[in-house]
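Reviewer comment 2.1 asked that we show a complete input and output for one of the modelled complexes. We chose the iron/sulfur cluster case, as it is the one discussed in the main text.
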Amino acid sequence: MRLTLTVWRQKDAKSEGKFVTYDAPDISPDMSFLEMLDVVNQRLIEKAEDPIAFDHDCREGICGMCGIVVNGNPHGPRRGTTSCQLHMRSFKDGDAITLEPWRATPFPVLKDLIVDRSSFDRIIMAGGFITVPTGNAPDGNAILVPKDCAERSMDAAACIGCGACAAACPNGSAMLFVAAKISHLALLPQGQPERYDRVLSMVAQMDEEGFGTCTNHGECSRACPKEIRQEFIAQLNRDFLWGSVFSRPKVAGGSGAG
Amino acid sequence: MELKSNIPDGPLEKKWDKYRFDMKLVNPANKRKYSVIVVGSGLAGGAGAASLAELGYNVSCFCYQDSPRRAHSIAAQGGINASKNYQNDGDSIQRLFYDTIKGGDFRAREANVYRLAQVSSNIIDQCVAQGVPFGREYGGTLGNRSFGGAQVSRTFYSRGQTGQQLLLGAYQALERQISLGNVKMHSRHEMLEVVLVDGRARGIVTRDMITGAIESHVADAVILATGGYANVFYLSTNAAGCNTTAIWRAYKKGAAFANPCYTQIHPTCIPVTGDHQSKLTLMSESLRNDGRIWVPLKKGDKRAPGDVPEAERDYYLERKYPSYGNLAPRDIASRAAKQVCDEGRGVGETGLGVYLDLADSIKRLGEGTIRERYGNLCDMYERITDENPYKVPMRIFPAAHYVMGGLWVDYNLMSTIPGLHVAGEANFSDHGANRLGASALMQGLADGYFVLPYTIGNYLASTKQAKVDTSHAAFKDAEAAVATRVKKLIAVKGHRTVDSFHRELGKIMWEYCGMGRTREGLKTALQKIPVLREEFWKNLTVVGGNDEINQTLEKAGRIADFLELGELICLDALEREESCGGHFREEYQTPEGEALRNDEKFCHVAAWEYAGEGKTPIRNVEPLVFENVHLTQRSYK
Ligand SMILES: Cc1cc2nc3c(=O)[nH]c(=O)nc-3n(C[C@H](O)[C@H](O)[C@H](O)COP(=O)(O)OP(=O)(O)OC[C@H]3O[C@@H](n4cnc5c(N)ncnc54)[C@H](O)[C@@H]3O)c2cc1C
Ligand code: SF4
Ligand code: FES
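Response of the prediction step:
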């Protein structure tokens, strides 16, 4: 098939960007979306033109590295699908496709479709962990975990940290990402000791990074390639409230991490 | 070159205890005076960096992705082994040790493998405590599944995303150490050189992948945990960025490269569809628990699978290996698939595929149960192939997946360069000539959580080193070498893209050094690769410069190294005149077509030593001594 691509091109973080249109003939429906971009890039390189820069690594929907806004939808038109798992059979001959990077203030564009998502790492740094230095663990079966808790925890833990939720949110909120981590750990007995400190620290960091507030639009879950559910945001809110009321003031050294 | 394995003496079960008692300790107050560089943030690097930082060392960690959480360990699906014997089915440290040695076709070191089996249980405990949501039984205990090459159920899992969950555990521990200031994380930094001072590893040179800045980093010990090099085959189950650069640079500085030809071709991947393809997707081995593998009995049978009556199907694994059946080890299952396709009985448009059929299990257990077990895998399959695996059997074919070869290390995980340690898939490790499923995650985490924290301490406590900083001539030279190399890649200004070279190299490797290898074929490859490499340096085109994000430049550097490594792999395969595990030389097989080892001549590790540009590398040998297991012809019949 033949497509027309309109792609955001931006040399680096400091430069202004603009849309550039490319003709993309001879595209096979069996190609993945990123393989289609590979083909377009090969042709650009052969003409000594700068190829379109985009992040990717595993190409099987698990590393969270890829992320392209396709026709206004983060990760494209298919639900529960990352950009790398999207296939060209989701498009038809003659389609015009617009490709943009994630748009959210805390995700500055580095080049073309590549953004800086280090804010997500800093949110995890603020408390998205269980403090258990190597060698301190009891036997794996010493604490029983109800199957149902383990399953729900896993539903939340499936988040790949791609950032599509924040890119899709009209307020640029990272609430779904943060809620996924909070819920993953709060649903397990091992996560209890730091539960409320964790939520306070992570939310504070999210605010500091400049992410917006959540007003329950639900765009995040619709864009999420792992279909992380809205209910986890409710879990976060409950924990946050409880934590704000009952938590001790924080001790120097971070959330229970000393 | 001397290859001292430094295995502690004494009985096998006591060696690791003895080591830990004999080793030198660093005083807690002194630990922060030592710095350690960890290249890689996967299971091995991430776990190692976090654990060393917890002990008090000053750690710097590097990865090429934008976040340490994205290392390719994230993609592991099926599970992780441990000898917990929670199932009461007869598992033990001894049995896990034996299965791993046998699975590796008796080409791994006893002492290392035994230690691995010993610490396997601690790994599960550690991960549970970190909040890894492992699969559970209704009573709340941990669940297990079975994997190839074992008759006990010892594989722990988190749905089909075990690697992701284990890595997130290590990543979160790492982020905690970053927040405490004990680890400095350098994402989007690619290591391009190791730096030696007075013969010891004292640092690395990296390229900042955003600005192009070439920077030196100094430390008292260096750990490479940079993963595997299966991308030398172009098409593989690895991530696009997986490379050999880090270990190849170390090899060229004097680290011996062990058994490069031991590569694992995984039996169950989605077959290739066309030339545009950039990667192959794995369908977890766990599917073989409930999927039956077959091809039509007749050659060239083009009927739809549903139209082939039962009597005209060949369930070849069940027929050839009745006791392990569809759960035969990977090397055996892959080769069997190749055989039936070579006979013209392969399925799908290309004839390079076999069926993995869930129909009988669906009949027995219901679609619901199968969906619960493999839902995410079936979805992934359908997304890629547009076929419904609950209705039509999946088509699968072997693909390059994992490498058992890597930098040679001793019992301390130290390479032949003092101070340079190697962990995870990057070392030649514990899997001999074939790795069993669910054993790489175990090994990566064993290295990171439970081996390096001891052996690095021992190294630092027993070594006196002068203070150096990055103004030292060795660093300046290494920086200059990196800068020159980058310039050289940009300056070729030819007409062929990096990808086209990579694809051509991959085709050579797959054809001549894939599942079946012959003397003739390997010799052909050894002629073709240098020609291709020469063309690369004459006709490559890289657009753009160094001082920006330049993905073509990054790739060019990696392919340049693959073009050298490919030759070493073929050379190693040529010299090893036997078949063992994943290394199948067609000249050496039993009358039934199984791998035929030659223990008399090849019961050893081949450790290649770089001899200089244009010179044939030197093949050193570490004999493998088996005191506890008896070498037998592997049988899974
Ligand atoms: C699809 C798939 C499924 C698998 N499933 C299983 C399974 O079920 N069970 C099992 O036991 N094993 C499985 N394996 C194997 C296992 O996942 C890997 O062997 C293991 O995770 C490797 O871990 P690692 O820490 O050594 O390397 P990786 O996780 O690959 O990490 C490498 C790290 O090094 C960094 N790096 C690499 N090169 C450089 C450089 N030049 N400069 C700077 N940084 C660099 C990367 O950024 C990364 O952080 C699977 C493998 C694949 C590909
Ligand atoms: S919640 Fe979903 S969209 Fe947001 S980072 Fe996680 S996986 Fe991506
Ligand atoms: S490239 Fe890894 S999720 Fe898309």
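Strands of chain A lie at 3-10, 17-24, 69-70, 73-74, 96-100, 109-111, 114-115. We note this here for comparison with the apo prediction described in Section 3.2.
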